[in-house]
Write a structure and sequence with these properties.
Layout (H helix, E strand, L loop, with lengths): L20 E12 L2 E13 L4 E5 L6 H9 L6 E6 L2 E2 L10 E5 L10 H11 L4 H14 L15 H14 L4 E5 L7 H18 L2 E6 L2 H7 L2 E6 L2 E6 L1 H6 L4 H6 L4 E5 L3 E3 L2 E6 L2 E7 L10 E5 L5 E4 L8 E8 L3 E8 L2 E8 L12 E5 L6 E3 L3
Parallel strand pairs: 3-8, 3-9, 6-7, 7-8, 14-21
Antiparallel strand pairs: 1-2, 1-4, 4-5, 9-10, 11-15, 12-13, 13-14, 15-21, 16-20, 17-18, 17-20, 18-19
This protein binds adenosine-5'-triphosphate.
Length: 376
Amino acid sequence: MTIAAPEPGTVPSVEAGTGRLQLDALTKQFTGRSGTVTAVDHVSLDVAPGEFITLLGPSGCGKTTTLRIVAGFEESSSGRIRLDGSYIDDMPPQRRPMAMVFQSYALFPHLTVAENIGYGLRLQRRGKDEIASAMRMAVTSMNLVGLEDRSPHELSGGQQQRVALARALVVQPKVLLFDEPLSNLDAKLRDAMRAEIRRIQRMFGITSIYVTHDQDEAMSMSDRIVVMNKGKVEQVATPGEIYARPSSVFVADFIGRANFIETVPQRMVGTSAVVTALGHELTVAAHPKISAGTDSAYLMVRPETVKVSAVTDGGSGIGTVLRTTFHGPTIDYEIETTGGTITVTEAGIDSRLALSEGTNVHLVLNPERAYLLTRD
Ligand SMILES: Nc1ncnc2c1ncn2[C@@H]1O[C@H](COP(=O)(O)OP(=O)(O)OP(=O)(O)O)[C@@H](O)[C@H]1O
């Protein structure tokens, strides 16, 4: 799907510099027959105007509840929300300058595409001309021209989601909220829609909060990712930072794949630590919680940062290939070492030259790509 270029001056971008959203120690408890659940636990966030931020985490970590509190569909137990500096906690959802896009599209089945898109504007009692021009903008920018008179059931899943996005855009919200909007689409369409959502969001400059449990989606779309676990924020950072410098074993394990090699920091060199891992002494960047007194830590090593080679000189290597798995562009090796099993990923090599199972190998770690974490 491509987005038609809008005519100059027709894109009603959000007023520059508006749409700053601040969550301050937002907390939500649900009390039921089986006791009290803290779904959201002191979540604080400062989302910049026009920023695309993703809430990411396993099922039940509180992503959707956080989003629903921001939208006003759920009341917080404590904590506050500010939009452009003003508290909005007591504002009913329909008065908040926000729009939400759902996984289920939530289109009205008895209304046409055009009526669905214009619904919010009619509710706001906007003038006929204004509605017509906003509709034209939304229909064109979401590539829905020619589909205006169809019913939702006459559209594909991707088209329905574009209608849902057009309906959200047309009311010119300051904040767009997305609740797993792509999980009903097949993998190829999902990829295309990720790019389209980002293009549209940038074009309009709308602050966006996007909920997903798909780390790939979060990594490819976000300015920053908020990793959540059991209602709490584990880390807020750019995708690159989260991948290279995860704040905990939980984050490192949840985002991408990682080896954790148990080790003891021997001494600190500024903010780095000297450790021994797989028989080599390395100086590696360390999490701020690591200090000279830390008695045990994990060295996080991404599989694609380890170099593996067969022992050819008759000497002894550090490990043995347990399993070789082909993935097309990459090959995975599981290597048994005295420090546990290490996964190594090789890219761009001739698969016919892959190391076979049972091969004795050397491993070289890249200290610049490793990161030392505390164990908790
Ligand atoms: N209305 C409710 N009443 C009671 N408990 C609830 C309610 N809504 C959510 N919860 C609980 O709050 C916690 C957080 O739920 P939430 O839906 O926010 O998680 P999530 O991260 O969005 O999960 P998922 O990815 O599965 O949608 C869960 O333990 C859930 O069971």
